[in-house]
Amino acid sequence: MAETACAVSLSKSTPSRWSNNACRGYVIKAMESCGYKSKDIREVLIELYEVFDLRARLTSASMS
Q: What three-state secondary structure class fits 64?
């Protein structure tokens, strides 16, 4: 699966913490606009945190 546009474009110009939070915010707003329930949004955000954590570990390992 391709990375989200917000994560890719923002990670090039800003700290990853901000871009990760911005991406989460856009995900929440998009899901709310599509009528998803809070429970479903929370599940997606949990998965998103795991994706961000995995990517950070892989990036860190490749820099070692």
A: coil
- Separation between Cα atoms, residue 4 and residue 39, nearest integer Å: 22
pTM of the shown model: 0.61
Whole-angstrom distance, CA of residue 63 vs CA of residue 11: 17
CA distance 8 to 20: 10
24 within 8 A of 50, measured Cβ to Cβ: no
**29/45 Cα distance (integer angstroms):** 12
Q: Residues 4-60: pLDDT tens digits?
A: 555 445 445 555 556 888 899 999 999 999 999 999 999 999 999 998 887 777 777
